[in-house]
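#random but structural
TW: two for the price of one
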Amino acid sequence: MVYKKHSILKSYSKINIFLNILKKKTKLHLIHSFVLQINLIDRIKIQENSQKKDKIIFKGPNVKKISKNNSIIKILKLLRLKKILNNKYFKITIYKNIPIGAGLGGSSSNATTLLKYLIKKFNLKISRQKTLKLLSLIGKDCSLFIDTKPKIIFNYGEKFKQVKFSPRLKLLIIYPNKISLSKSVYKKNKTFSAASKIEKILSKKKLKYNLLKNDLLEASSSLTPEIPGILKLFSKINKCKYYNITGSGSACFGIFGDKKSLLNARKTFKRKYRNYWTASVKTIN
């Protein structure tokens, strides 16, 4: 078996600053959310395989819980089914830093990052519109990773518009090592609201934290009972500007104005929740 020269790709994660569930339509929910990408990344090592088969390897904590029919497999199968990528096979190793089932978008980001690479590497003749359509077949939030610009996502999560937002937020992420299944959270959700008025919530310079919310918080907390304790501790930290879950959880985040207060908060969490996964990150908008 011969592998060609490899490339290393960066696959970013995301934070839902707010998330409105508008209503349920058919089996899916209409949503409205402001999303920023953060500098917490998976690394994807990819190289061509001389044999006519793919070899996909995940490395990192909890990778045994990743489905065999994961987003990487799905995007490769889809490209071959559509006869977009023929007679090319790969060894792909994904070094997972983004927690699984956390609401941080790791799986969707992995698929989108791979597709963008393959389009460029092999000069695939796919328009941006067709690229987004392909991604929506893998995961509704895949399209938000098409670039790293701030976005308002809507419809079922597959549509978006870019917005201007210049502050680079400093965040503390706490993950209680519990996988949250989006399907289960949405099924349990009973909280619905109107779409937030973006012009009231954000400007180029700041967020109005008192107007932010995540409609999935109650449903997510009922399935992951560790969430309320995490948020309660965030509420006791004076310099935490805002805190909530991201996406459908189970990861929680707090926004801080300076690095020192963020690092002090991380120490506080480490003392109380020694076994929880934590990360100090910033947005890359």
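TW: number two ↓
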Amino acid sequence: MAKTFEEICRQIKAKEFVPIYLLMGEEPFFIDQITDLLIEHVLDESERDFNQTILYGVDTDMAAIFNAARRFPMMAERQLVIVREAQLIRDIEKLADYVKNPLRSTVLVVNYKYKTLDGRKALAMASEKNGVLFESKKIPDYRMPAFITSFLKERTTEIDTKSAQMLADFLGNDLNRLCKELDKLAILLPATGTKRITPELVEQNIGISKEYNNYELQRAIVTKDVLKANRIIQYFEKNPKNNPIQATLSVLFNYFSNLLICHYTGDRSENGLMAALGVRNAFQVKDYLTGMRYYSAMKVFNLISDIRTADARSKGVENASLTDADIMKELLYKILH
């Protein structure tokens, strides 16, 4: 059974190492996190000069990897060999010959970024059998608030739902950028005398308005607060740099797509909707329970089509004159009326 990111990290911190870590996938953040954790825990600082080897796919070959992996450690229990940019090695499948019978005193880490290996072939199968085969996947936009909350919890920092959604909407699922901003906020917390990130802290230091943002727009749409929704859209029109239309359309598309799932879910209780949407917090389904009262399944179906059309027009498709603000105003009218 494949291990999760959290399970892998816990085992590394407990110094429960395996001889091969094949880390692959579209999201580089988790690959880098696991690799950095291995660098921190496999060897003591005094052991690294002789027992840590870092190779790069652009200027290495299989012979060099085999030679490095088959060396014995010097004055240490184990050695660490890291292959970065392994996706650039054409004959990477040949590594299966080593992985099938790895040296137990070597921890071999293979970073295969932005791609995945064929799980039916020898290298992936051997890696899963004798070590860790981890696929690092992009986090969907709608799960970013939960990721932010979990990420901060591990650092003994709390964040309220609104702040998490504000950050997710503004920064998207670029995890490296997101974590830099979260680290910046965390540094500021001791001065505030609290370990909780608030909308005020986000507004002051990230540049997102706590009153006029995609989170508040979605809340206004959910409750059909026409006045508030229009005020937010007018603010977006005056501040387009911090409120790009594509980010807003993505938020609306995710909400109404999930709302359509809710409409066609047999069990529409809180627990039933949580299971259907794959969320753990009952608070996250309240907007969908409200939305089902205001928006019929047919209305939602049509709105999803309207949002797709707005996205295409914002990119110049069948649109010669409308601005992004015009497109958003027209879409908002269709949603609320």
